[in-house]
Amino acid sequence: xxxxxxxxxxxxxxxxxxxxxxxxxxxxxxxxxxxxxxxxxxxxxxxxxxxxxxxxxxxxxxxxxxxxxxxxxxxxxxxxxxxxxxxxxxxxxxxxxxxxxxxxxxxxxxxxxxxxxxxxxxxxxxxxxxxxxxxxxxxxxxxxxxxxxxxxxxxxxxxxxxxxxxxxxxxxxxxxxxxxxxxxxxxxxxxxxxxxxxxxxxxxxxxxxxxxxxxxxxxxxxxxxxxxxxxxxxxxxxxxxxxxxxxxxxxxxxxxxxxxxxxxxxxxxxxxxxxxxxxxxxxxxxxxxxxxxxxxxxxxxxxxxxxxxxxxxxxxxxxxxxxxxxxxxxxxxxxxxxxxxxxxxxxxxxxxxxxxxxxxxxxxxxxxxxxxxxxxxxxxxxxxxxxxxxx
Amino acid sequence: xxxxxxxxxxxxxxxxxxxxxxxxxxxxxxxxxxxxxxxxxxxxxxxxxxxxxxxxxxxxxxxxxxxxxxxxxxxxxxxxxxxxxxxxxxxxxxxxxxxxxxxxxxxxxxxxxxxxxxxxxxxxxxxxxxxxxxxxxxxxxxxxxxxxxxxxxxxxxxxxxxxxxxxxxxxxxxxxxxxxxxxxxxxxxxxxxxxxxxxxxxxxxxxxxxxxxxxxxxxxxxxxxxxxxxxxxxxxxxxxxxxxxxxxxxxxxxxxxxxxxxxxxxxxxxxxxxxxxxxxxxxxxxxxxxxxxxxxxxxxxxxxxxxxxxxxxxxxxxxxxxxxxxxxxxxxxxxxxxxxxxxxxxx
Lengths: 391, 347
Fold this sequence. Notes:
heterodimer, A: 391 residues, alpha+beta, ten-stranded antiparallel beta barrel, 12 helices, B: 347 residues, PH-domain like, seven-stranded antiparallel beta sheet, four-stranded mixed beta sheet
């Protein structure tokens, strides 16, 4: 029976933050395929992808894209994505990315065409250029909705598709009005704007006919962002003082030498490199804080998400994620990009290893119901314009 | 007959049924499981292409599908019943290290050729066939933008302007071919001593630079450098080359911008800086040629470059060369001084 295949699963790695909710880890139980409906099973998404296997797929798709002057890149996108979908298995069932590359190609051509027209107009009719920028801002929410809907529609699992039912007016509110409000409130409304956007993305998604429920309280967003601002200010001050001191002292001694008309190029060079390192450490600091915020919010959102009677758990360790990201960037730069496939596999494997699906019944009871819902939600417009704009 | 185990999903619910699929020689497919008995024709179904070792799907006509884990058996079936397909070839390319290495070598070769030859050559051709009115409007728009943000009107007296303009005009006929160029005086404020060339032959020179120049020879040298940019249509070419580079890098790493924005922006930046340094060197060569033809010592260009470098607080080091838009001043001076007579004979 297929269900018995997931009898023995590896345990939660130490690197993941363990749940505070005490649930029996599936696989630890002595009776693996126990169907005791009262005890939720903790199902993990297993990831079978490897860097070596993905490297070969990745590079062959790049060379085909280059040789076809970019046309194949739409097919390459589907294959790259499908590799990660297909290498992930939940309860023995894989994920599928079924987008038609032709639609992705059309979407890309449309975007390139719009950019070219914009460039030309902005150059020759500057007034029109600004109008187009305004127009672009107004269609931005539509692009967001299109991209989310396209991605969801062509993601499926156990023969059922995902869907995204968000519409333009809501996207307009959350992506434009609330962003404007966040700016005018001096950032005070920003965490709430982020909360609304995340609620929009998850809350308007569904799997088959069953919608996701977003239950994460907004207060936590404020907690995370307040801590982030304090950390950024504190660490930023430390970096500013240490780095600034070094650069200033070095600069002063270099200036003194320059005054005596014998500027030592080596000293000047050292000072310039110190200044560059100082600047880079500021960027790294901002990146680090943003990464930790992102991880904390992702954990929070999944811990309060529901799909019918199914619940979820996400236990990523923010420091571990940050370490993987920073070392990935360093290795990508050092390898002139060759490490990219391994980097992608590495971060995906870690993220999925910290994710759990909690269900007290088999995952068999979810219905498709899409035919009834399609017209009801007015997705026909999206279907007519079945383009991937998720560049 | 070949048979394999699979999971059946009807497409209407997430329920899974374990089934056994039998592929018969006749092209008939039997799918059997608990409460399920299907008999289909090979022409009615579609099998998803192989990709790494990810599971395969047998799509049935009513929206149902079977998920099959055993890729090799699936391949045997497809091969046996319907002959080889292009998907098998794709999988062959994607699953072997020798083909991956070949792909890598070809990619690096093409990218190198594109950066070193393709993009510059294409940009040169487009720039030289660009209608004059387009370039004029580009230049005028560029100057207007700079006037709004960086420049303020020049504070030079009429006499100085007249003197500099005469020097400038004398340069327009000095090169291998007459150059359409137009001198603009501006006060640079934060920019300090500097000179710029814009499309359509606009050359902007800041008051500070005119002050910094100690002799007319030095002014001639700097302006000859900028006219070198104009003569070679560097600005339009640079705009084109930078856009094409960004497009190329985006095409290469397009799907991966999320993993680290840096992985896409850093190579773009490095290539663009390389182009910029090449243009500066070409402009230096042009200036040296013009100066030599007028019997003005090239040392004037060397001197003003040195003084500019001092003013901008830094002889740049060798490591920073790769990050720099201009060649290190020391290198520029070396190149200028060792310029052999062979170069001049070309003109």
